[in-house]
Amino acid sequence: MNNTLDNLSEELKIAVNQIAESIKPIIDDIHKMDAVSKNYYAEYLTVLSHASNKGKGYVMVLAISMLKAGCNPIGIDAAVKIMYN
């Protein structure tokens, strides 16, 4: 997932950047707390689960946005795997 932003269209890059900017305060609050799980994967799973009713594509855009907002890539990867594997 680390280089995913490079593969997106310009429109999706703009959307990811806007989402990342809007969720940055939430991500910062998560990181101010002691991690409940390794690499914050459970905390990230909680955020991603709010988008699950919108479909996998929406969740993946949110996951990429969360990476852009400063989330731990290993934690995001683990959360997505739990949701879809």
Q: How many beta-strand runs?
A: 0
Rg over CA atoms: 12 Å
What amount of the residues lies in strands? under 5%
Please tell me the overall pLDDT.
93
Q: Helical percent range?
A: 55-70%
So how many helices? 4
- The helix-strand sequence is HHHH
How many angstroms separate the termini?
Answer: 16 Å
- Main sheet record: none
When the domains are counted, the total is 1
Broad shape: globular
Which class best fits the helix and strand makeup?
mainly alpha
Low-confidence stretches: none
Overview of the molecule:
The structure is a single chain. This protein is an all-alpha fold. It has one domain (9-84). Helix content is 67%, strand content 0%. The protein is built from four helices and no strands. Helix 1 crosses helix 3 and helix 3 (56-68) packs antiparallel against helix 4 (73-84). The longest helix is centred in the N-terminal third of the chain and has 23 residues, at 10-32. It is globular and about 35 Å long. The two termini are 16 Å apart.
